[in-house]
Amino acid sequence: MTLFPSLEESDVPLQPVHDNSTHGKQSLETLQLYAFKKRTFPAQQQRKKKHFHNVASTPELCPERRERLFPDISRTQWEDWRWQMSHRFRTADSLARILELSEEELSGLAGPAGTLPVAVTPYYASLLDPKNPLQPLRRCMIPTAAELELGTGESPDPLDELRDTPVPGIVHRYQDRALFLVANECGSYCRYCTRSRLAGRAGNEAISRDQWRRGIEYIAATPAIRDVLLSGGDPLTLPDGALNWLLTELRKIPHLEMVRIGSKTPAVLPMRITPALVKMLRTHHPLWMSLHFTHPAELTPECVRACERLADAGIPLGSQTVLLNGVNDDVPTLKQLFQGLLRARVRPYYLYQCDPIKGSAHFRTTVEKGLECISGLRGHTTGYAVPTYVIDAPGGGGKIPLFPESIVGSSPEGLLLRNHKGNTYLYPEAAPQRPAGAVGDNSTQVAVFPSRH
Questions:
Q1: Which of 193, 303, 354, 373 is catalytic?
Q2: Which of 234, 240, 329, 355 is catalytic?
Q3: Is 174 one of the annotated active-site residues of the chain?
Q4: 22 C-beta neighbours (distance < 10 Å), count
Q5: N or C: which end of the chain has fewer CB within 10 A?
Q6: Catalytic: which of 66, 195, 279, 309?
């Protein structure tokens, strides 16, 4: 019996099984799983199906991409996320079959042991320009020689997460929330990854159930934690059953109010967002997702459909984007990305300054450039399409928001403010006044009642 049966197989009615070692008695794990499936998947919805997801009922969105890279592969295989994961492009030889690799890329791919592994799903590889090494999506996936250079202030762990790790897999930096690293694998590896020291390392692909338990025990023993972010790696590379087990165990913790999942899967592996997955996820509300997007070219019909499935399951979606030199560090590109995300029902949430990981200097822009981009968005598009620009401070300082200068100065009449067009306006700021009878500051005010004597 598999440790975490995939819930994509849960449409198949689970028949009682007999363990020869117990002379016909069902194992407790089997009975519990059977009860869960009976509750979650009513009998009228249960139907037998093959290992590959049945796609006949929906039209294939972009068959030309599949046919270009894998003309002999069926649509059923292409749209199965397990097939995508097992056929990722990982070596220079495999990538050379679909891309004209530049000298810089060949040098990066021949880098020494210890550099971030390479993995690109066939789906995401179909979005790469085979001839142009400077295409934004290709730059984010294919290493170059610049990745082998160590820049000033760069570090394998620039956010000093290890310092705030009380037990393996938990980063507890903010009082009321914790980061729970539950997976080390991603569908595809971004070359600017903050956790490149961990992701996809040989022998480090899987995190044990015992480590998960230790993390859950720490959260349960820390009442201040009300919010947990599952990250890694990418939690959505876990089988449905494993993810369901994690969410179920976390939901047993009384003081835990919400769980978030951080993922780039809708962008690099949208076929992972199956009806069975979202059916399971919706049983664990309140559940939120922080989705990683880099460029508007990622917003394909397949990606948008994946986001819509998650949104239809009642999961609020926010996006996180890293500002990258030559990839998305201009107003038109960011505006197109953020407006497209809103159409896909994803709220742009954070725009990150690139973290100073080893070999990232060629990706990092200046903060001045980032503020210029935010200024070019604010007032020129809907406010929902303007994320908060932040630096995750090196050394463990946490997220620090950055804003364009909008307060020009002050005068006896009030504040002088500059709008998105550069015009200056006066806001008549009133002198602070305290309500009669108020005691202490606003956060500790107590009502004053007349004496009954």
A1: 193
A2: 355
A3: yes
A4: 9
A5: C
A6: 195
Q: What is the pLDDT of residue 410?
A: 81
Q: What is the pLDDT of residues 199-251, one digit of tens each?
A: 766 656 678 889 999 999 999 999 999 999 999 889 999 999 999 999 999 99
Question: How many Cβ atoms sit within 10 Å of the Cβ of residue 17?
Answer: 12
Catalytic option among 66, 138, 177, 364: 177
Cα 89 from Cα 113, distance rounded (Å): 18
* pLDDT tens-digit series, residues 297-312: 999 999 999 999 999 9
Residue 133 above 90 pLDDT? yes
Alpha carbons 392 and 173: distance in angstroms, whole number: 12
pLDDT the model gives residue 113: 63
Is position 399 annotated as part of the catalytic site? yes
Question: Tens digit of pLDDT for each residue in 330-370?
Answer: 999 999 999 999 999 999 999 999 888 888 889 999 999 99
Length of the chain: 453
Beta strands in 127-248 (DSSP E): 170-174, 177-181, 227-231
Q: What percent of the chain has pLDDT over 70?
A: 79
CA 394 to CA 192: how far, in whole Å?
15
Told to judge if 62 belongs to the known catalytic residues of this protein, a careful annotator would answer: no
**Structure tokens that stand for 5 in this block:** 């049966």
* Calpha distance 44→30 (Å, rounded): 21
Judge whether 373 counts as a catalytic residue: no
- Which residue among 90, 282, 347, 399 is the active-site one? 399
Q: Which of 173, 197, 260, 364 is an active site residue?
A: 173
20 Cα distance to chain centroid: 43
**Cβ atoms of residues 121 and 84 within 8 Å:** yes
Q: What does the block give as tokens for 438?
A: 């108020």
Question: Of 65, 124, 139, 186, which residue is the catalytic one?
Answer: 186
